[in-house]
Amino acid sequence: MNPNDFISNLPDNILHHITSYLPFESAVRTSFLSTHWKHLWKEALLDSVHDVTMEAAIKAIQSFLDGFDTHCRPRNKWGFIFEFSNGRNILAASISRNGTLRLDFSAGKQEFPMPFDLDLKPLQTQLPYSNTMKVKSLYLVSVSHLSISSLVPNLPFLESLTIAKCEGLQSLQIKEAKVLHKLVILDCPQLQSLSFEGSCLRCFRYRGKLASFRFQGYCKCTTFRRICICECGLFLKDAMIDLRQDSLTAGTWDFEKPPCYRYSCNLYKRTLCRCTTKKKCFKSILISIRSVKSLTICGWFFETSMCCLLSSSRDPLFCLSELKELWWIDCSIDRESINVLLCDTESQI
């Protein structure tokens, strides 16, 4: 600790009092100052609840949200720290004024994570009362309990979802996400498949190992011209694809086209998919970023997937015609590959 840092050297009870006067978002950011500050904001702004079950914690969170009033909040009442009956798991649940609910299990004693699947289907069955908090953003950190998904159906106004450091998460399926416009998946090493169904998603940020992406939107691509779920991908405006955590080779990605693609009216042609198997639809993410304005990519993703498409001007699915910002995550891309992208998009960047 810096000896000239007189504030950090103050007793914790005084630091708690100082932290309680900060805006909630600013108080949370103090956790980045040092190791000593990491948990101070939680101790100052969250109530401790001991020897509780997961079901009781979920009910307490729902009750807290129902009675949340942004105008008359005590300055040190922004959520809970639940210590569960098993003595090993700790959940920090907090809500900010802008409607961001954060559920964080990272403070507990981490054991070998059990594999699990997360199936989220927000329902709009009942509108909240006027004084009920409308949760617009959900931040899940180190979630390892399936029961946490019971909270999501009660969040019909969810616009942003972030899932980070969920060690045992193997598959994520999001259905009927009609208002969700931002999805962030970070550092979930066991994730194998990600399926999204919605119409408003505009921002997708992913960091982890290569997973099977499948994005389904709503459009009139069918013969009957009805609005329905299709495989035409989404219209993302901001995307990040970081696959540096995986050991990837050129054979990892499958771009094989089905027989008679150009001449038959089969399922692949109608859905613009072209993947050899619907269970491993990697092409879906490429179709969804065809109209991005801001793109952040790693070298492997570009060289293995995007480069072969950009080099062919005949492919109408992928032209990056609206690209304004391009960010490289690493510098391992050779000059020739960079020129392919710049030549194709120099008029937009």
TrEMBL record:
Top-level taxon of origin: Eukaryota
Pfam family, one: F-box
Entries under Gene3D superfamilies matching the protein: 1.20.1280.50
Domain F-box as annotated: residue spans: 4-53
Annotated PROSITE patterns: FBOX (PS50181)
Protein name, UniProt field: F-box domain-containing protein
Taxon lineage: Eukaryota, Viridiplantae, Streptophyta, Embryophyta, Tracheophyta
